[in-house]
Design a protein that fits this description.
The protein has 11 helices and 12 strands. The chain is α/β, with parallel strands linked by helices. The strands form 2 sheets. An 8-stranded mixed sheet has the order 6-7-8-3-9-10-12-11, sandwiched between helices. Strands 2-1-4-5 form a 4-stranded antiparallel sheet, covered by helices on one side.
Length: 331
């Protein structure tokens, strides 16, 4: 059974002309890492927060979001508290913004078990020490304050906190953005190891395609609140079939790339205050035709690759990755 199953998710916010999330389908299985990638504002973070029903005031949702078989969108407040303290957990981008600087790490880690599940202090503390050990920290961290720990150590504390309730699903929202490159690699390796050891599903939200390629089994590429392309990571990055995916890859710095200015994607993402007609990427796509501007593409499997799905009218005609790549600043 999938630990996360999202079907037909639509999310509307007040004062927007169109859904912020528009028909999102996404799954994560046990022991699987799924990356959700895209530009800032594409809807990645809102998708992950919807899984825990952490939504802005006035948000209206449609569709289903099931975690371990239970639909989050129909849960009562008590059911949501149990979900957030046990079944699913989130690791946020900035650990210093997620933990009270005036409380010791041990108090932060044990609060959920003691207050939410009624676990005795000694038992909760032992569990916290066990989870700290699993992320490479000693029990001495229990007595320390957040300000006494480095950013990398604090992110390990946040991962330990996510594991406290033995979750079936971990949501990691750009958890390495605020870290240096070496610490990023350590955190990514740690998340992969913990996924295997504890059998959790991992939804990894990032704008870094290189990181997504390194950590994920499958990838979802999101644009303007819709899934543009999805498939096994190796196949998707080797042969992207959506112009947006290929343009993102072309604009990613690589050591083996030819010298010169990086490729760039012309234009801007669509404004939330304007209705969308046709393919949302059409105004920025060099391959767009009238059908792209008038009719939204269906998500269909790539011929011969049933697990590789793409929403593009011309994906069957443009198989060469270089035909998709975005324009450069020198053009």
């Amino acid at each position: 059974m999938n630990t996360l199953e999202i079907q037909g998710l639509r999310l509307r916010l007040p004062r927007t002309a169109r859904p912020v999330l528009d028909g999102v389908d996404l799954t994560v299985a046990a022991r699987e890492t799924v990356a959700l990638v895209g530009e800032s504002g594409s809807g990645k973070t809102l998708t992950s927060r919807t899984v825990l029903s952490l939504l802005p005031p006035g948000a209206v949702t449609e569709g289903t979001v099931r975690v371990a078989g239970d639909d989050v969108l129909t849960m009562t407040p008590d059911q949501l508290r149990r979900l957030r303290s046990g079944t699913a957990a989130m690791v946020f981008q900035d650990p210093r913004a997620s933990i009270n600087p005036l409380r010791r790490v041990g108090d932060f880690l044990t609060e959920g078990l003691r207050l939410g599940a009624g676990v005795a202090k000694a038992e909760a503390t032992a569990r916290a020490a066990e989870m700290l050990a699993s992320v490479g920290l000693t029990s001495a961290a229990l007595r320390q304050y957040p300000g006494q720990l480095s950013g990398g150590m604090l992110q390990r504390v946040m991962i330990a906190a996510a594991l406290m309730g033995d979750p079936a699903l971990i949501l990691a929202d750009e958890p390495t953005t605020a870290l240096d490159v070496t610490t990023q690699a350590e955190v990514v390796a740690l998340l992969g190891d913990l996924r295997e050891r504890f059998g959790t599903g991992l939804l990894f939200v990032t704008h870094d395609l290189g990181l997504a390629a390194a950590i994920s089994d499958r990838v979802y590429v999101m644009y303007a609140g819709r899934i543009a392309e999805t498939g096994p990571a190796e196949a998707l990055f080797a042969r992207p079939r959506h112009p947006y995916t290929a343009a993102l890859l072309a604009s990613t710095p690589r050591l083996d790339a030819a010298r010169g200015r990086l490729a760039a994607i012309d234009g801007q993402p669509p404004d939330l205050h304007e209705e969308l007609t046709g393919c949302p990427f059409a105004p920025r796509c060099r391959h767009a035709t009238d059908v792209c501007r008038e009719t939204a593409p269906q998500q269909l499997p790539v011929p011969g690759e049933p697990a590789h799905l793409v929403s593009c009218h011309h994906s069957d005609q443009l198989e060469d990755r270089h035909q998709f790549e975005g324009s450069t600043a020198d053009e």
